[in-house]
Amino acid sequence: MEGSFGVCRLSIVSVKSEPHTHAPQWAQLLFGDHYQVIGASQDANWVRIQIHFDRVEGWIDAKHHHAITPEYFDQINSAEFKITTDVCSTILYKKATLSIVIGSIVPISQSELFKMEEQFAFNGESKAVGQKREFEYIKAIALKYLNAPEQAGGKTPFSISASGLVQMVFKIGGYSLPFSSEDQSRCGKPVKDLTSAKAGDLVIFKSRKDKALSSGLLLDDNKVIHVDGRSKIDQLFEDGNLDLETKIFTHQLHSIKRILNE
């Protein structure tokens, strides 16, 4: 199986840190995410994968693996597919309906040369994956994740991580960011201070409790949407992030990065 390829054909698939059911969730695959198989467990019940988009590695249940040919994998890489923008939408796949979440990739391309291996029907809201959008669009997408409960490795409005929120919001907006907050902190153009920051900038925090990094999206008036227990909006100061409910500074400001094209 090593060296083969796959694509997610379920709504959400948990990517684990180890090949067993009770292992922590490392990331998630959404419908349409494609990957390379880099190994398998001894009992063949688990498949080790590398997600193509961000090179994250982890384990998925072998029953969730949907194999594709190298040729189809290459087609996915070269085609300008659509990414969904509805919180939840429905596709017709293999003559059955399947609910998918925002940020899923639907293999619908404008290229007449593209030959589909599978047949789909989709009529929800979507945009071209690589089409870059402006701040107001990205803000509207971010607000669709508001109040999503925090979960390690989460990428959906129903379970989200801090870095997952940032990655998905920018991905839907046409920008590629890595998955971890630490890796995200190395992206973009450094912004000197909060006074120089603009709405749409990437904000990197450092937890006052354990010094771990997390990330968020700067909104208007120095508000920031980020994940702390749930996806929420707080106020950003040079001293850090002020929880608007508790009035407590929960995170220090680590850095600000410019991601959007000016």
Provide mean pLDDT, rounded: 93
The number of E-state strands comes to: 22
Report the end-to-end length measured between terminal Cα atoms.
44 Å
Helix content: 10-25%
General description of the model:
It is built from four helices and 22 strands. By secondary structure, the chain is mostly beta strands. The chain folds into two domains: 129 residues, SH3 Domains (SH3 type barrels), CATH 2.30.30; 124 residues, endopeptidase domain like (from Nostoc punctiforme) (endopeptidase fold (from Nostoc punctiforme)). Helix 2 crosses helix 3. The longest helix has 11 residues. The relative contact order is 0.12. The model has no long low-confidence stretch (mean pLDDT 93).
SSE arrangement:
Blueprint: E1 5-7, E2 12-16, E3 25-30, E4 34-40, E5 46-51, E6 57-61, E7 67-68, H1 70-78, E8 82-84, E9 88-93, E10 96-101, E11 105-106, E12 120-122, E13 126-128, H2 135-143, E14 155-156, E15 159-160, H3 162-172, H4 181-184, E16 189-191, E17 202-207, E18 213-218, E19 223-227, E20 231-237, E21 240-242, E22 249-258
Antiparallel strand pairs: 1-4, 1-7, 2-3, 4-5, 5-6, 8-11, 8-13, 9-10, 9-12, 14-15, 16-22, 17-18, 17-22, 18-19, 19-20, 20-21, 21-22
Helix pairs in contact: 2-3
Give the tags:
262 residues, mainly beta, SH3 type barrels, endopeptidase fold (from Nostoc punctiforme), 5-stranded antiparallel beta sheet, 4 helices, 22 strands, 39% strand
